[in-house]
Amino acid sequence: MMENIEIKLIEMIAEMKEQIGSINQRTEQILEQTQKTNGRVTKLECRVSDIEKRNDNENGAKQVKKEIDNKKWDIQKMFLNTLISGTVGGAIGYIASLIFSGVK
Q1: Does the model's pTM come out above 0.70?
Q2: What are the residues whose beta carbons fall under 8 Å from the beta carbon of 89, sequence distance 6 or more?
Q3: What dihedral do alpha carbons 9, 10, 13, 14 form, nearest 10°?
Q4: What is the pLDDT of residues 35-46, one digit of tens each?
């Protein structure tokens, strides 16, 4: 009877070793797949980060272009004001010189 118990225990231990080996193999497969997945996720995160940086740069460039365009328009307005003021002032001066050139 004791022999039967020992044989059963040995069989159970052998079966448990086999199951543990199978579990270890499956765990290694899961680990390998997880590492591959993590690598792909890391690559995708880098791509997303690059795209976000590019978008930020493009948006920044658009903002700078808009500010430059606004400054150019401000300079053009100042130039036009100066030109108009100079023209009007010159015209008034010319008219005044015509009026007062005959006065003696």
Answers
A1: no
A2: none
A3: -150
A4: 999 889 999 999
Looking at every residue in the chain, the average pLDDT score rounds to 85
Measured CA to CA, the distance from residue 19 to residue 13 in angstroms comes to: 10
pLDDT of residue 104: 55
Q: How far is CA 90 from CA 37, 42, 54, 96, 98, in A?
A: 78, 70, 53, 10, 12
Check pLDDT > 60 for residue 103.
Answer: no
Helix or strand run (H / E) with residue 76: helix 2-101
